[in-house]
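Nucleoside triphosphate/diphosphate phosphatase (Domibacillus epiphyticus), 176 aa
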Amino acid sequence: MAIPAEGESVQIHSYKHNGHIHRVWEETVVVKATENIVIGGNDRTIVTESDGRTWVTREPAICYFHTRKWFNVIGMLRADGIHYYCNISSPFVFDQGALKYIDYDLDVKVFPDMTYILLDEDEYRQHSREMNYPEVIDKILRRNMDHLLLLIEQQKGPFAPDFINRWYGKYLQMCR
């Protein structure tokens, strides 16, 4: 699989299970890229929704993507600490200058004190029916949700205490 180069600016494309585009982040700078992991940074990037509406992110963020994990993590640097938004999603692929994944609705919002809430369970059930998510996908997503929650609780991987700040520092160096 192709991987982006460190320092490269890429788009992030989120799709739904039916293949329709869900959301596009215009510009993310790759700060780390291996055959399995891409870590990117962005700040005040334009986001385009499926209906054409646009908005701009409010704070710097570090994004974590994996080719084997069915989730991605966005760490947002705010005045009161790091807030995380985790999407239960397909593993990413890199194609035509964009990181692409399927968003499976379930999300986890993590606060600076590492408490968290699960989001969009109703949306998941609705889309599962409407788009006929296969049972095997449901099992994979549930297993990966359990793994994600364990990482949060143990503060490992992208939730390790220095992870976001370390990669944000590299992002700032690359943008100079």
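The helical segments are 121-130, 135-154, 163-175. The chain has one domain: 9-175. ok done for today
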